[in-house]
Amino acid sequence: MATVNYIPYNKQSAFTMRGVMMYVCLKEKTLLKNEGYQLITGQNCCAETAFSEFTATKARYTKSDQVQFYHYTQSFKVGLDISPQQAHKIALEFAKKNYPDYEVLIATHTDAPYIHSHFIINSVSFEHGKKLHQPPNTLRILRQSSDEICMAHGFEVLPTYTFGRSKTPSRAQRKAHERGDSWKDQLQQAIEFAMIRSFNKEDFIFLMER
Question: What is the spatial distance between Cα 5 and Cα 133, in angstroms, rounded to a whole number?
Fold first, then answer.
């Protein structure tokens, strides 16, 4: 089973985009030692020149301001019987299905306890110059898409995702808080636990999944 997560950035620039690309493509994270190659692929671009191609597309359509890129990860459960090559193949299908008209840099990491892939997506389409639109339900759509691809490859998926809509605690939630068994309180404690023990975003995601 796999889950898809969005990694936000408070400030974006070409410098930030370049740094993120360099990080996700680090040799020690993507190298298949026995095979001698890295699990890095460019969709609608060359992986080695993805940064320059991303910026060239923005310059072509004069859309180099504001959001530069979008960063998502697709992470597989710890202990799942899946090879890095399979995970990368699924990642390529995921990118093609959801971003057919956009340049995407895909890098699969094998150095963590769980196999996961990074997607760096250009905010501007090379095909028609439109900015990538990310509505509020984007993460739900992407997770469902990931589930469909994983099931097609014979992997189990997580239960249906649910997203809370009300910011005001219900009566049942208030009662649970008073009893000390509120799932929201437990979630807050889990988040604080993960934040204290995490050195980077990948550590945080891994601890939260645990």
Answer: 17
**Three-state DSSP class for residue 143:** helix
pLDDT for residue 195: 66
Can you read off the two tokens belonging to residue 155? Answer: 């992997």
Structural element, H or E, at residue 116: strand 116-122
The CA distance from 210 to 205, in Å, is 9
Can you tell me the distance from the alpha carbon of 11 to that of 41, in angstroms, rounded to the nearest whole number? Answer: 26
Percent of the chain exceeding pLDDT 70 equals 82
pLDDT, residue 182, reads 58
- Model confidence band, residue 44 (pLDDT cutoffs 50, 70, 90): very high
Distances (CA, A) of 11 to 17, 65, 177: 10, 12, 36
pLDDT at 1: 76
What does the CA dihedral 44, 18, 62, 69 come to, rounded to 10 degrees? 70
Q: What is d(CA 10, CA 146) in angstroms, rounded to the nearest whole number?
A: 26
CA angle (32, 37, 40) in 5-degree steps: 95
pLDDT top residue among 202 and 12: 12
Cβ–Cβ under 8 Å, residues 104 and 118 = no
